[in-house]
Amino acid sequence: MTTPESERTTVHLMRHGEVHNPEGVLYGRLPGYHLSELGREMAETVARHLADHDVVRVVASSLERAQETATPVAESHGIPITTDDRVIEAGNWFEGRTFGVGDGALTKPSVWPKLINPFKPSWGEPYAEIAARMISAIDDARAQGRGHEVVLVSHQLPVWTVRNKLEGKRLWHDPRRRECSLASLTSLDYEGDTLRSITYSEPAAGLLERARKKAGA
Could you say which architecture CATH assigns to the domain 8-91+127-216? Predict the structure, then answer.
């Protein structure tokens, strides 16, 4: 017999698909950034991947790219999207700027004070606050989807930060080492209220590889 203590619940943390951003700015929480054609294809691919899963709830941040990524998943299961900004992109002082060592905002001495503490970090929302709001959203979604599966469509930094927190790792990190590709799934498997495993998958990896090859052709 299944008891509340042995009930299996899975929370899939999904990163949104590719965004149309020809200017290459750090768009952060800015409105108006939508999925590219490839991004929409990614979202549909993940929806097909999850079509035979027991998904009973789909949650997304209010940003367009998250809502657009969540739409095919929600539609394939005949359920609405629940908007929850506890899973929104991290706040960042460099929002709206190009960000690079050679030609972006980092070339301006006036911004250097924002970079003095990478452990907090000093340029944006503290990692600890990101982890706390994500865990709160995960716990609520898990309670509402107990015994089933839930999809939370979020953003790279929040997903990676909460994964580090749940795995007992330090929150500050090298952004180049994040395992959170576009349209990826970081799946949290619970038995009752106990987190048993964290698995990572990339259902849309073939689309990304195709795009890379096309760009390099």
Answer: 3-Layer(aba) Sandwich (3.40)
